[in-house]
Structure of Xylose transport system permease protein XylH:
Amino acid sequence: MSNDTKTPEAPAPQNSAVDPRLLQREAGLAGYWTEFTRKVRGGEIGSLPVVVGLIVIWTVFSVKNGHYFAASTAEYIAYYMVGVGLLSVGLVFVLLLGEIDLSVGSVSGLAAAVYAVLEISHGVNPWLAVLLTVLSGAAIGALQGWIFAKIGVPAFVVTLAGFLAWQGVMLWLLGSTGTINLDDKGLNHFLSGSSYFMGSDISGAYILAVLAVGSAAYGAFSEQLRRRKAGVPFRPTSEVVLRLVALAVPAFVAAYVLNLASGVPNALVLFLALLIVCDFVLRRTSYGRKIFAVGGNIEASRRAGISVPAIRISVFAISGTFAALGGLAIAATTNAAGQAGADPNNLMMAIAAAVIGGTSLFGGRGRVWSALLGMLVIESIQYGLNMLSLNQDVEYMIMGVVLLAAVIVDSLSRRSQKSSGRG
């Protein structure tokens, strides 16, 4: 009897999975549009709302007042957003954990008072006084973080107590006058409104633009090379070049506009430098990934071996450090350390800037560039309202609406991500 049974052929090997983003990129502009719409439907909207909001704000105020689009406007916004913007950078780290720090306003005022007492009352070298001031802010933040992480007191309560206590310490240091005038030297001179990068030389602004685009190009092409060698998907050169052009255009336009005024304020240079460093820490280091992990899921972070208390304490120390830097920058705008440094509005605006810029109140999502974008929105609105001679009550109402809109967008984005399986 013949055996007609045939040995089944082995199944043909299946093609390895291909990253769908690569297929979309191969489709050209249509593919990129498909990827963009997929992200928006999935709640991954990034900085899109704040960019659209800025365009609307600038358009409305320019229509209302033809002088709004002037070099003096850009210079004003670039300088006065730095102080509160530094507070907001520290808050971004805290918000990534899903927590809040209500003490940054008081810590900033206390930091200015500490600096004034050291430098003016005790004759300490200005730069040493700056170092001691920043260390005091870090120590305050670490103390509050320790109480939160180790004892278990909610961060809201700890920092609310700090909001009151550190303001009291500030008033005690300032004495009966409530104000200490600062000397125009050291960091105070560097951050003053009359101090610009490379003086009045217009090349300074363009040098900064070149450095920004050059560093971005180095990072992008280095990442492309690493991913290519590792055999994993990477951005094609054409996309990298387009991204660099998208960065170069606003960078050189900003340089040109600021040069029409007096140049780039040193305060803005410091602010941008710190943003770049913090962005690198959050996106390129294991410490930054641990912050996102703790903010996304505490229990999973513990099981992965992450020391949650250490991350929490360090993050609040970072918040205190930036609160101290922000206090020094705010004091430099008035050339004095006073009660205005602990203005509760600074705290509210710092929180609003982080949230408006795209940092989630629920933790696990955000970037330090949110502080910059949020402060651009806030200062653009404030300057526009001042030009229109509107009262402060209108400003508060508008800022409240803008903040509420940002939180609503954040909540809807999270809901979309959960429904699409990415939340």
About this structure: The chain has 18 helices and two strands. Residues 48-195+265-393+409-417 form a domain with the ABC transporter involved in vitamin B12 uptake, BtuC fold (CATH 1.10.3470). The CA atoms of residues 254 and 377 lie 16 Å apart. The radius of gyration is 25 Å.
